[in-house]
Amino acid sequence: MTRVRVLLALAALVALPLRGAQSQNAVITGKVTSESGQAVEAANLYINDLQVSVGTNTLGSYTISIPAGRVSGQKVNLRIRAIGHQSQVRVVTIVPGTQTQNFSLKQDVNRLSEVVVTGSIEGTERSKVPFAVGRITEEDIPVPGLDPIRALQGKVAGMRIAQAGGMPGSTPEILMRGPTSLNAQGRTQGPLIIVDGIIMNVGSMADLGGLDIESVEVVKGAAGASLYGAKAANGVITIRTKRGGSQDGVRFGARTEYGFSDLNSLDYGQPVNHHLQLDETGTRFCVTGTTNAAPCSQTLDWMKEVLRINNVNADTTRTNQNLQWNAPSAAGGELTNVFQSNIWPGQYYNSFVQAANRNAVALNSIDATGRVGAVRFYASGSYTTDQGAIKGLNGQQQQRGRLNLDYDVRTNLLISMSSLFDKSVTDLRNGGSSNGSIFGQLLRGAPAGTDYSARDTLGRPIVVGGGAGFRGSGNGAGTFLYDAENRSDTRKSARYLGSVSASYFPADWVTFDANFGYDNRSNTEDQHFNKGYRTIKQPDLTLNLGQIQIDNGTDEALNGSISALLHKQLNPDLTGKLSFKGLFDQEKVYTSRASANQFVVKDIYTLTNATASPAVSTPTYTTDKNVGALTGVNLDYKGRYIFDGAYRVDGSSRFGAGNRFASFPRFAGVWRVSEEPFWKLQKLSDFRLRASRGSAGSTPRFTAQYETYTCGVSGCSLGQAGNKLLKPETTTETELGTDFTLFNRLGVEITHVDGVTRDQILPVNTPSSLGFTSQWQNAGTLANHTWEVALNLPVVTKTDFSWSMRGSWDRTRTYITELFVPDYYPTSPTTQGTGSLFLYTAKDSIVDGQPMNRFGSIWGRKFYRTCGDMPGTVQGQCGNGAPGDTHAYQINDQGWVVWVGDGHNWRDGISKNLWQTKLSQANSPWNYPLFFGSPIVDRPLRGEKGEGVGIQHILGNVLPNFRMTYTNNVTYKRLTAYALLDGTFGHFIQNQGEGWGLLDFSSGTFDQSGNTIETAKPVGYGWRGGGAEAGNQGTGGFYDILGPNNYNTELGSYAKLREVSLTYRVGNVAALNDVSIGIIGRNLMTFTNYSGYDPEVGVANAGSSNSGLINQVDAFGFPTLRTFTFTISTRF
Amino acid sequence: MNRNLTRYAALFAVIGIGLGACEKQLEVTNPTSGDTKLVLGTATDAENLVGGYFKRWSSGLYGSLTVVEGMTGVMSVMNFSSLANNCLNGRLPFAGVDNTNTPGNVCTGEQARAYQIENEVQRVASSFLGQVDAGLDLTTSARKARDLAFAEFLRGISIGYVAVLYDSTAVITTKTDPVDAGKLLGYSEAMDSAYAALQRAIDYANAPVTGGQGFPLPSTWIPSPTSLTAPEFVRLIRSYRARLRASVARTPAERAAVKWDLVIADAQNGITADHLVTTSNNTTSGSGVVNSWRAQYDVAGLWHQMPPFVIGMGDVSGAYTQWLNTPLGSRGSGNNGFFMITPDLRFPQGANRAAQQADFAITSCATSGTVCKRYFVNRPGGNDQFAGSGWGWSNYDFTRFHPWRVQGDAGTGQQGNTLYFAKSELDMLQAEGLIRTGNYAAAAALINVTRQKNGLPAITAFDGTTAVPGGASCVPQVPVAPSYTATACGNMLEAMKWEKRMETAYTVLGSWYFDSRGWGDLPVGTPLYWATPNEDLLSRGIPSSKLYGTGAGVGDAPGSAAVKGTYGW
After folding, report:
1. Among residues A532, A893, A926, A1122, which one has the fewest Cβ atoms lying within 10 Å of its Cβ?
2. Where are the alpha helices (DSSP H) in B283-332?
3. What is the pTM (predicted TM-score) of this model?
4. In angstroms, what separates the C-alpha of B280 from chain A's closest C-alpha?
5. pLDDT digit string (tens) for B314-372?
6. What is the spatial distance between Cα B454 and Cα B367, in angstroms, rounded to a whole number?
């Protein structure tokens, strides 16, 4: 708002005629430069007492002319403000004639002079805002994001943004400070996002594109977001897109970026060795013996067998031969006796290389900006494509058009309009069969000897390259390239965003604003399997004859507000502001699904062409209505003491009928200490203290308040009990902070936040005999404790050379402090193995060094790591495993405590043929058998309560210990280099992919290449099952039925070289101005010790938490891709 | 100042009034869901509600893989899985029993589903009956009798199955308040309520009535090839009652104490032919009867197998005896599954795998309307799985309902009529009662029906001790004490058990499990019933550590697991 007022004042001043009688006027002129001597363009100089304001031109020059009638020799404050520089005030005497006032502006290291509009009742300098507001401008985004959210990655302390999945078109996930909801199903853990006044309820932020952003402001929690009420507990992001300039005429811009994206790594350490038996030539695999034939009486060539089973003119494949395992004993086949140590005969293939492709990435845009009469405009069109990095996948393509208009109807009336139309096509295939995933196949089911580029005699890609029964085990198939030609899953969406706002200034003490926003998004997802789609071994007509499913969805939202802002100079030192605002918003969502299978005619993908199992799923139709009223007051005493208070009341259709309204107050203040007359510390400047305590809410999911029955053609069944008293979750934050600049060079911002979210909305079990088994109730409290530090360091500021660094550090601890339901395990993020990943409890007793109630702790079993981990009665039998050690329990070369039996050493497994020995259940201290050389699960000892069952430990926490970002920006003459390193540290990931790999012998960990007879481990070391281990399914080896344990739960710390750019400003070329060329890299390198493919991982849109940043399970998700592009831009 | 305050107060008042006026505007209905007021509002709507609840009842028992059926199959050694899916690994009987009721345990979903859905069924049926008591006008006495009989039937089979499966449950009556969850009762007491409800259902169905809209039951209520008349419905009710009476027993002692005269009476007046139900694979709309595990059992060559423990009793080649003589952990070594030769025509015939595969190829009954020649198939080459415990490996897959699984009645798998209650099961219930009451001749006549049909010689010695005929080729050949490594031809009771197991295998939820616990045939340590789900206990304020609620196994479940039984495992 302040910006608008300044522009209007500037416009008014420009319109003033320079009268001929110059001698009677007072003229102030001068030049504004930075401390490095460079001209400062677009600095604002203003004299409040005279209501005049001007800006500097490209040379940094300005002229203020004051009519003679207003010249009386008075002393006034001439203020100057420029983005990126500290404000200055100089007392000047207004006298007839010309005087020169030059300014040299110091760098505003902490950018406290910037005006922010988010969270305050009016645009306010950051120095006077009592809570932390992150602000990012176009200049801070040298590497444009594919969407505005990704552009924020690593740029705001306390804001965690990550890709739970890197598939083109996927939306990044956001956590501000920490989670506020224990259960966010049907809701979000992310912030409220407002774009040019439009509340973004749903849809991909990618719709907005990353090139039209003028600024983004981030308020991270309730202390600053109270003004936004019942939807703002997770903070607020406001995005402002570019507007037209104030100069007449049109200025065009064009930018093109073109390059490729690919996988970060093609070397995942997949096993090259195998455990199958070869014939005496070492080139052919032995077929399993049958009743009438001995093993190896028949042999086969791997790829010939693959082609044989694929090469059949049918919609199924041939049945594969079973292969004989390589086992040293006559009995064979037992997992403790089989080593994954045979070198693959002949050529082997890297499945990642076979699947990967450097596909195109392009971001092209043109824009026009300028002014025609009283209308300023900004128009742009852009096209982006991101095809991903897998052969056959199409990724996402988007086309966008934007038109923003500002119309100065009168000097005191401004009308603005913003509009965006976006159209996109997104390939949603993650490869694999209908329920598979391409990375599941690549990491788990692709044998090293299979050439997936092979085609059968009919020219079809192979549909099975190993898989069930063919490796001896394993469930992978290998349809990832086959699917590219025979399956489709495409979403087409169109979105229109539009808003109109008006600002009216009838007097200098009052402003009226009105805003109306509209958002309409429709999408259609078409999934089909081609007629003739091949299935493996078993016919499946629903796939073989083709299948189609069409999902439709529309989302229509509108919101509006009207407000009045009153200013008053209450006394010479005290300025007051008072605002009133009324708001409403409404959203309607409709989804439907239809499906059928068995096409009549090939290649016609319509429902009418599919004859079997036509089905229409129950459509969803939801409506949300919200109203709100807000009042706020702001008092500024001497520019040093600022008090801010606000009170908002929201009513929502999502609250229970008995609790329709909720209120959200805020009290806050700033003390600008270094503005005090007593402040003498020159080396510590811009020092201020700030405090804010406020509330904001999180609404229940749509269905939560209702009693539900699911009704179909055959009648109804009971769903959940209703709750008319359901309230929103309310987060109350207390934020304390300080900002200062040391030596005019190092800017520091420190913030501490305590947030408490009460009335957690949880699904509460009810006795089954009520018929309803659950009810959503307000039943708990979640607390966040956060520290945030941001540093800004302009290292060198010279005319030809500048170097600046920025960094941030933050940490949040989250605890369940109250739970009014029994402790429970929430809905798991994946279907297998993670059912008890988390435990929700408010008990704060310490387990494994952690309070039980810390949110995000992964619970699971623990294999002994040290002798000290073992029960006291057994510790005496445990040794360090050094050569010659003969303790019954020893620490092996991988750092696990294993049982070896008295007199042996863990190295003796093969040389003494001990791998098949075991300590019987009867002799085991745990009343559970132990196996030579294998890890030991922590269980109660014999006779103790719960014997036989693994003890649940806290293995780690999915939320990071801390996060750090580090940015460098170096400019030498026309060359600018920029890099952003983004790190997350101390969080744990359950590597479920590794668990599956152990099951299928496709984990590189157990490839025995490079091991000796002392260090080699049989496959049973990883997966206990079969043969002599009968009865100990998956509970002895690391596989452990995929359950979380301290083998598969790993520290996931990582740092990513998130953004890199090198730009050279060429200058003017022919008719083109400001030509720049550059190279850009995104996600170029990852530094981590995590053993999975990519530590930036998670399961999105699942589980109770409904956040991939909390569901830290690595389950074959599409990894974040790196991109490398060339860019050229110009303005003319 | 006062003036300003007055202005501000007025402004706030206006805003407050404005928001208050908005309250009505904020009421939004949930258009895709009904509520109790709606669904019981009219006679037709109420009928629609209760009329869909046989399917809902079925859903609790059969409609999902995450239901106890898979666990009962493994516990009674009917089935075996090498994977963790559907709680199967945690139930391996030789792994040490692990029937924990701890919140979050891997079996939570399986444990709770039947309990929750069957309780929902009894609540809905009771609410419907209560609504009729409260004056809901069903217009004619015929319609009222039909509806009340059906609702009481639902109450009976829903309470009955919870009593069969779980330690305890609440019983809801027509007088129970909608927000009253009722007290937990032990399974015996609950079963008495089930019997009473089924008797009321019979009484309503037999009552003289006038007016329209009476029997037969609407075909959608119990989806079947034909609509049930009142006498047919009574026969079905009595069949279920006979099954429940026998199945509720946890131990041989309880099984012996069953009122077998009542079982015999119900069985003799039960269904006269196999009861078929029309199923659907439509799981999304809830409109069909879904039978998930039956379809899953037929998925040959993947992760699930038919272990030899019981089917081996049909072997006459000596392979079963050899298998019994092999240490448990070594059975199946060398990637060889169990192969058997049996005269029982429910199994493929032949001296080797190739011959058995040729005798009955699964593809021979893969079209609609065909009947599979055998119940079991010798798995085609290349489909064997040797993951997991060797004692679970065999060469056989269950394919009795293969046409239904792959083609249904009209080309779409799992859509069509399929067996839900076999006449032979009822005959064997009667036969067991007759054996237990000393009427061996009548029992033999019933047992011989399926024996002879499947190539086994008729029993001609009418006593409880004589071995079944067949000599070295007799079936069944059961493990015998003291070592249980040798086998002997079974007596009439064992013959009845063999017939019942073969006829109900992979067909009726828990059939082998319920019978085996009463016959004392479960592997040692196998849980004898399920704890009341922790969700229910905790919501009632009962700690989940009290695994077995209020039933016989109070506390941490002493006596709730099987002892070493008949066959020595």
Report:
1. A893
2. 292-297, 308-311, 319-325
3. 0.85
4. 10
5. 999 999 999 999 887 677 766 678 999 999 999 999 999 999 999 999 999 999 889 99
6. 23
Average pLDDT, chain A: 88
Spatial neighbors of A595 by CB under 8 A, at least 6 apart, are A547, A548, A549, A550, A607, A613, A614, A615, A617
| A1116 in Cβ contact with A439 (< 8 Å) | yes
Spatial distance between the Cα atoms of A1081 and A361, rounded to a whole number of angstroms: 11
Mean pLDDT calculated for residue range A375-389: 94
Kindly tell me if the per-residue pLDDT of A570 is higher than 60: yes
Is there a contact between A334 and B333 if contact means CB atoms under 8 Å apart? yes
3-state percent helix, strand, coil for chain B, nearest multiple of 5:
50, 10, 45
CB contact at 8 A, A624 and A567 = no
* C-alpha to C-alpha distance for A1104 and A184, rounded to whole angstroms: 6
Q: Cα–Cα distance between A753 and A224 in angstroms, integer?
A: 11
What ipTM score was computed for the predicted complex, to two decimals? 0.89
Can you tell me the mean pLDDT for B141-162?
98
A758 in helix, strand or coil?
Answer: strand
Nearest Cα residue in chain B from A614: B282
Contact between chains at A709 and B35 (C-beta distance less than 8 A):
yes
CA distance B325 to B482: 13
Q: Which two tokens stand for residue A557?
A: 């939202």
Q: B333 vs A332: CB contact, 8 Å cut-off?
A: yes
Q: What is the pLDDT of residue A432?
A: 44
DSSP β-ladder status, A192-195 and A236-241: parallel
Question: What are A497-540's pLDDT values in tens digits?
Answer: 999 999 999 988 999 999 999 999 999 999 999 999 998 877 88
> The tokens of A284 are what?
């052919």
Mean predicted confidence (pLDDT) in A39-61: 85
pLDDT of residue A889: 97
Chain A residues touching residue B92 (CB < 8 angstroms):
1031, 1033
What are residue A810's phi and psi, to 5 degrees? -150, 155
- The answer to whether the CB atoms of B52 and A715 lie below 8 A apart is yes
Determine contact, residues A1027/A331, Cβ cutoff 8 Å.
Answer: yes
- Consecutive H or E run containing B479: strand B477-480
Q: Are A73 and A60 in contact (CB under 8 A)?
A: no
Confidence of residue A2 (pLDDT cuts 50, 70, 90): very low
Q: For B214-299, where are the E strands, in sequence order?
A: 275-279
C-alpha to C-alpha distances, B283 to A201, A965, B53, B85, B280, nearest whole angstrom: 31, 48, 15, 19, 8
Report how far residue B454's alpha carbon sits from residue B448's, in angstroms, rounded to the nearest whole number.
10
Structural contact between residues A284 and A301, judged by C-beta atoms closer than 8 angstroms: yes
The average pLDDT across A743-763 equals 95
pLDDT tens per residue across span B488-505: 999 999 999 999 999 999
Residue A1022, helix vs strand vs coil? coil
Judge whether residue A332 has pLDDT over 80: no
For B391-422, where are the alpha helices, taking DSSP H only? 402-406
B199 Cβ contact list (under 8 Å, min separation 6): none
| Beta-carbon contacts below 8 Å between A and B | 289
DSSP B143-170: HHHHHHHHHHHHHHHHHHHHHHHBSEEE
What is the rounded distance in angstroms from the CA atom of residue A99 to the CA atom of residue A66? 12
Query: Which residue among B94, B413, B540 places its CB closest to the CB of A767?
Result: B540
Say if residue B558's pLDDT is above 80.
Answer: no
Among chain B residues, CA nearest to A290: B336
**What are phi and psi for residue A555, nearest 5 degrees?**
-140, 120
